[in-house]
Amino acid sequence: MCKILEMTDVTKVYHEGSVDVTAVDSVTLDLRKGEVLLLIGPSGSGKTTLLSMMGCILHPTKGEIKVDGGLVSNLLEDELPKIRKRYFGFVFQAFNLFPSLTALENIEICLRLKHWKKEKIRSEALTLLDRVGLHDRTHFHPCDLSGGEKQRVAFARAMVGDPPIILADEPTANLDSKRGMELLGLLKQYAKEFGRSVAVVSHDVKAEAVADRTIVLEDGRIKT
Ligand SMILES: Nc1ncnc2c1ncn2[C@@H]1O[C@H](COP(=O)(O)OP(=O)(O)OP(=O)(O)O)[C@@H](O)[C@H]1O
Ligand SMILES: [Mg+2]
After folding, report:
1. Which ligand is located closest to the Cα atom of residue 44?
2. Are the CB atoms for 123 and 129 separated by under 8 Å?
3. Which of 62, 113, 139, 155 is deepest in the core (most CB within 10 A)?
């Protein structure tokens, strides 16, 4: 299987005053096309830090990161937004929707930010909402949506531009078990139907059922 993302010997050290915290310690892993990779581990084991480095949100202290064969870990800060825009969609635990915008508008604004042509924005936003089963919630505001529905809007937004990689940090943490499974099912469908890659951090044991591979982190290292 082809690799879309490769990390080699990646370390992240946070400097907290005079204290150094090694959050991720010499991690080597890859993300393959069409797979769902699950990252699990205790609180503080470095999952969010690892995912943030995968998504070019955070620079590694040491090590190499390649996206689609190109080295990104040596890029300057102002070159990273372009990479993030082209390759990644992000889903977080908090849904991060604009409360004053409808479900549809929350997606449209993202399409606008990604410089989609004006005349294509409405139909693409509707297609994405349909993909997550929310065609009948188009004009609802976030406060009138359930947690599961809000997360599905957030996922629809992450799919804008069909990014090759979706990174999801505890996307089911605020959902009940049924809604959590629905969301995980949608993530899996995205990987399988569209040949995209998904890396998901989850405490949810049921997430293992949708994952192709599971990596366990402990104290910033991959547990073997
Ligand atoms: N910005 C920061 N500055 C300093 N230390 C940090 C920072 N972010 C995280 N850390 C530390 O790095 C370690 C790993 O944190 P991280 O958030 O990656 O863990 P996690 O596995 O995502 O935890 P959780 O399951 O609670 O979300 C922890 O010891 C944490 O305290
Ligand atoms: Mg975390």
Report:
1. 1
2. no
3. 155
| Contact (CB, 8 A) for 49 and 24 | yes
Fold of the CATH domain 35-43+74-223:
Rossmann fold (3.40.50)
Residue nearest to atom 30 of ligand 1 (CA): 44
Out of 16, 19, 21, 203, mutate this one to test ligand 1's pocket (max ligand atoms within 8 Å of CB): namely 21
Which residue matches tokens 């997606």? 107
Sorting pLDDT into bands at 50, 70 and 90, what band is 1?
Answer: low
Structural tokens at position 175: 């959902």
Domain ranges of the chain: 35-43+74-223
CB–CB of 211/37 below 8 Å?
A: yes
Assigned token pair, 95: 């849904």
